From TrEMBL:
InterPro entries: DUF4856, Ig-like_fold. Residues 24-47 are annotated as: Disordered. Residues 1-20 form the signal peptide. Pfam families: DUF4856. The keyword Signal applies. It comes from the Bacteria. This is DUF4856 domain-containing protein. The keyword Signal applies. Keywords: Signal.
Length: 607
């Protein structure tokens, strides 16, 4: 590959008396040059050099160094040069081209399995060189404990989190069923559908366990109902896993009527995470009852109105199917993962609590083939929702935006047996949001890689636990204890960042979207589809925005969290008189989020 250098001018000293050397110190004015005593010269400065052999990097490796590249300079140490790299995933540190600490490359995702970029090196004299480089990506085959979430004890798998999968499936199914509540179906079908949807979330019996899934239709999954995934697992309600209902210790008393914030109206229900779910279902019931009585439901704003045939959408602009699912993503999934399995039940004396003994890692359960500590980490991973071969997917495939046929839509039959196993081969919940947000930053100055950063942290943390099977955490080396906490923090941070970025995404969509936005509704001339679009985007924004309070390690303060929700309110403002001020409020909320999570400005705009 030809090296492109800037042209260098050779400095020539004038031979006349009184002139100084270009780039050097002043010469003696009385010096006379002769052929025997030539005029002093200043050595010319040469541009840095970048030598490329075969540049390559291993996929699925955060912050990996790019091999096959040498950077040098005759005048400065290579580490003292300044650099720019055309691809924002890369940087040069101490003369070495590498990926940034929270970026990895994906062999399956990059066109032709390589990345083309340009590195510019500038020395202290301002001389620079630009070098085009093609970085070949080395494919890492799915490897247990490396880029595959798979671990063993005694030659058999030690990974199990079917209960978490069951709750993901229940939440996905409830959303699917609620989306079928329209005026196009019979009263009987509406009543049955609502009952089953509520049962998947709140029922305390197993009557709904045999109900066939609708969210998996056409996907060739191995399990057709909850009973085939796990024994009875309740999502919310008494005995469920929603924050405040679970008996496990948590950092806030969620049922005290004050700890849970972000929503104001609860009707006749308790001001708790569970009470909000019950309130949402009550609103849907009232909508269905109204339709069943033969009364039409209208959204009316600024002398414009449309009939609402989707009964899970209220005239106030609440999409209750979205609100229920997104709230539960935080109140169940993030809460259990961050404020339970990866906190009190994992480490010694978190937050000064000396009454809790962390899960033991000294003995492998003979029947289940895992230690308590291994299982707690697995359960947290299960709530993140990623398939075990998550790193083999491209972001497009997880987002359902193309890719290989075997991976499209966020599922892949990795083991080639009996179709898609929902317990290990399907991407649920926030694992999908992470990839979707990464997908939206590829061409930006500072692309995100939430998906790889979270997944690799989950794998690396579990590998440390697996390595130390036979000893409890207080017997580990200080290095292993510190590394496990670092991986815990990384997994939770990028899990939550994917949620916060999704809130930003839906703030943007609520403000401006071709399918319908706030100003469309405020104009008084709008269609039902435009109204549904605004309700969906706002409800996803609000539902996700409720989540971060359930992570005790969140980068956002309680004060800022409350401010965000005061700006958002409990429903979108849809009137002409108020919409401009409301848009300003949403923009303020977006700014608070961007600052708290240190999001790049281009990413915030493009999400």
């Amino acid at each position: 590959m030809a090296l492109r250098k800037s042209l260098l001018a050779t400095a020539i000293l004038a031979a006349t008396v009184g002139l100084t050397g270009c780039g050097g110190s002043s010469s003696d004015n009385n010096t006379v040059t002769t052929p025997e005593t030539p005029a002093p010269t200043t050595p010319s400065n040469k541009a840095p050099t970048i030598t490329v052999e075969t540049a390559s990097v291993m996929e699925d490796t955060l912050g990996a160094e790019i091999t096959g590249i040498t950077i040098a300079d005759d005048n400065d140490d290579a580490a003292a040069l300044t650099f720019t790299v055309s691809d924002g995933r890369f940087e040069v540190v101490e003369g070495k081209l590498k990926l940034k600490a929270t970026n990895a490359l994906n062999f399956e995702q990059e066109a032709d399995q390589k990345v083309s970029l340009t590195v510019t090196a500038t020395d202290s004299a301002g001389e620079k060189v630009e070098q085009a480089i093609e970085v070949a990506i080395t494919d890492m085959q799915p490897t247990a404990g490396k880029n595959l979430y798979a671990f063993e004890n005694n030659g058999n798998s030690s990974v199990a989190y079917s209960g978490q999968t069951s709750r993901h499936a229940a939440m996905a199914e409830a959303k699917s069923l609620l989306g079928k509540l329209t005026t196009d179906v019979s009263v009987e079908d509406r009543n049955t559908t609502l009952t089953v949807a509520e049962g998947f979330i709140l029922a305390q019996d197993e009557s709904f366990h045999g109900s066939a899934f609708t969210f998996t239709e056409g996907k060739g999954v191995a399990q057709s109902n909850l009973g085939e995934i796990s024994s009875k697992k309740t999502v919310a309600g008494e005995g469920g896993k929603i924050a405040g209902s679970d008996a496990s210790p948590m950092n806030k008393t969620w049922n005290d009527g004050t700890s849970f914030v972000g929503w104001n109206e609860f009707g006749t229900f308790d001001k708790t995470p569970n009470g909000l779910v019950e309130y949402y279902f009550d609103l849907i019931k009232k909508q269905v009852e109204t339709a069943n009585s033969g009364t039409k439901i209208f959204a009316e704003h600024n002398e414009g109105s449309v009939e609402l045939t989707k009964l899970y959408v209220t005239p106030e602009g609440l999409d209750l199917a979205q609100l229920i699912q997104k709230h539960l993503n935080g109140a169940v999934s993030l809460s259990q993962g961050a404020d339970d399995y990866m906190d009190e039940l994992l480490f010694n004396n978190p937050n000064g609590n000396t009454e809790i003994t962390p899960a033991q890692n000294a003995e492998v359960d003979a029947d289940k083939n895992y230690t308590d500590m291994e299982h707690k980490w697995d359960e947290a991973y299960g709530y993140f929702g990623a398939a075990i071969n998550y790193l083999e997917y491209s972001d497009d495939e997880i987002a359902g935006k193309g890719g290989r046929d075997a991976f499209k839509g966020g599922y892949n039959d990795y083991d080639g047996k009996d179709g898609i196993d929902l317990k290990s081969e399907y991407n649920f919940g926030n694992s999908g949001n992470a990839a979707k947000r990464d997908r939206g930053t590829k061409s930006n100055t500072n692309p995100t890689d939430f998906s790889a950063a979270a997944q690799i942290a989950f794998i690396n943390g579990r590998a440390i636990i697996n390595k130390n099977v036979g000893t409890n955490i207080d017997q580990w080396s200080s290095e292993d204890q510190a590394e496990l906490k670092e991986y815990r923090d990384q997994a939770l941070l990028y899990w939550e960042k994917s949620i916060a970025a999704t809130v930003v995404h839906y703030i943007n969509d609520t403000i401006s979207h071709e399918d319908g936005d706030l100003k469309d509704i405020a104009s008084g001339t709008y269609t039902a589809d435009q109204f549904y679009a605004v309700a969906k985007h706002w409800s996803e924004m609000k539902g996700f925005a409720l989540n971060s309070q359930f992570n005790p390690h969140s980068p956002i303060t309680d004060e800022k969290f409350k401010e965000i929700h005061e700006l958002m309110g409990d429903a979108p403002t849809l009137t002409a008189a108020g919409v401009d001020a409301y848009i300003t409020n949403l923009e303020k909320a977006r700014d608070i989020i961007a600052e708290a999570y240190k999001f790049d400005a281009d990413n915030v705009t493009n999400w």
